[in-house]
Write a structure and sequence with these properties.
Length: 332
């Protein structure tokens, strides 16, 4: 499109016989309106190659990095979901901890559970030793957690408690565990301290009789709490040892193969390790049995609270509530 000013200048120069503008000025005037000079064949080939390379580069980038874009979007959405879920559970647990707080009072704990349809006779828990803690603080925390759970069980009138700790550290400190649990029960029950017995497979047991005030008490409170301490060696290793023993006895003719039944295996494992618990409580954010005795957990109700970290009374109470409302189908 020609500019009016350029058209007027050219016509005036033409009327004057092309004496107004010099040849250089006429070239500058017409140059913007002239087509581009043709490229050399080699230059044309280079230009087409560059355009093709740019087009292929964009396609290649989208093709090779598309999965990264999809992964980033999925990761961002899932991270947002996890954060929202954790925040929700933290709020729920905080409200529950305010509404259901034991205040180290056995009567308050029993009031929480007395209206439940049923309570477990044998409660089992899995505790974890903090191996990164320094100066024995991990062991002290582990013993404190075990003592708290023992006091809650005694307050809820659950007569049997088994505590599983994978490394076996807790089993090596039975006197210290017994002393800590006795002191914790005294802090909860005052003069009416129930008796407590602590034992572990292949270890001597420790017993403390109930106080005279607890024995003469007319209420229906728990008189004696039995505590079993377990580790990973009491799980699969016990089954392997029993299998070897039964195979050796069968080869020597002391027992026939027809006598080796599930009932026999169950009786032997119950005697050497423990019987099946009614409820297994997990205080971690996921269901991880970390080597828990597999035979004893066949028909056990397992309970955990999502996104929970650490031992607290809310997990204990919610586990009992879930157990009370669970349907026991026994494989049917």
């Amino acid at each position: 499109m020609f500019k009016p000013r350029d058209i007027e200048a050219y016509r005036r120069d033409e009327k004057l016989g092309h004496r107004m503008l010099t040849p250089e000025e006429r070239i500058r005037l017409l140059k913007p309106y002239l087509p581009s000079p043709p490229l050399h064949p080699s230059e044309q080939a280079n230009k087409r190659a560059m355009e093709e390379q740019q087009r292929l580069g964009v396609r290649r980038f989208l093709k090779t990095h598309w999965h990264l874009l999809v992964f980033t979007i999925i990761h961002a959405l899932f991270s947002l979901y996890i954060r929202i879920r954790q925040a929700y559970h933290q709020v729920v647990n905080k409200v529950s901890s305010i509404y259901h707080h034991h205040h180290r009072a056995p009567d308050l704990i029993y009031n929480d559970v007395k209206d439940l349809r049923r309570l477990p006779i044998h409660l089992s828990v899995i505790l974890t030793l903090d191996e990164d803690a320094r100066g024995g603080t991990g062991l002290a925390k582990l013993i404190e957690e075990a003592s708290d759970i023992a006091a809650w069980c005694a307050s809820a009138r659950i007569p049997q408690l088994s505590i599983y700790e994978r490394t076996g550290t807790l089993k090596g400190y039975l006197p210290r565990v017994h002393r800590s649990m006795t002191q914790k029960l005294a802090a909860y029950f005052g003069p009416n301290i129930p008796g407590i017995g602590i034992r572990a497979p292949h270890c001597p047991s420790m017993e403390t009789a109930p106080t005279l005030a607890a024995s003469r008490s007319e209420n229906d409170g728990l008189k004696h709490l039995s505590v079993m301490i377990l580790s990973a060696e009491d799980g699969r290793d016990s089954i392997v040892d029993l299998t070897k023993t039964l195979a050796d006895m069968s080869q020597r003719g002391k027992i026939s193969t027809s006598d080796i039944t599930i009932e026999l295996v169950d009786a032997e494992l119950s005697e050497s390790v423990m019987g099946e618990p009614d409820l297994l409580l997990l205080f971690g954010p996921r269901v991880e049995l970390v080597g828990y005795p597999p035979w004893q957990v066949r028909l056990t109700e397992i309970s955990h609270v999502q996104d929970n970290e650490g031992v607290n009374y809310q997990v204990f109470y919610r586990g009992l509530s879930k157990y009370a409302g669970a349907q026991m189908r026994w494989g049917r």
